[in-house]
Amino acid sequence: MAKRPPCPPGFPWLSPYLTVKDSDKSLDFYQQAFGFEKRMAMPMPDGRTGHAEMNYRGAVIMLSPEGAYGGSCMSPASSGHPTPVGLYVYCDDVDALYKRATAAGAVAKSPPQDMFWGDRVCQLTDPDGHSWSFATNVADFDPSKAPK
Known about the structure:
The chain is α/β, with parallel strands linked by helices.
């Protein structure tokens, strides 16, 4: 029997897996707000989307709804607890993404601003309570601008 590669072709070695309230609504939101592309969606026996995958520039973001496949995870919005994990994503134009994402329903935590490490960054929360930072690199890191 041939040895399989440890990571399937077309997958990165690390992929976030998000628990959401409704996979189909979340897929629509992520496409509209962030420009992610639906890669695949697998229906559960009840017809709702269970496991789904999205592409973004070589990254794969996976998601499933609360309770799917007997799981007990809840989205941050449903659990009432803030997410302990943030996702940091580079994009071509953080100002345009911020405008598109907030129009699609993302909650603005901070508008785009230039940071001392050279990125222009905004912070957003999606409808499921997941925390996202989007950034466009606009300058080299300047250690003299770092907080002391």
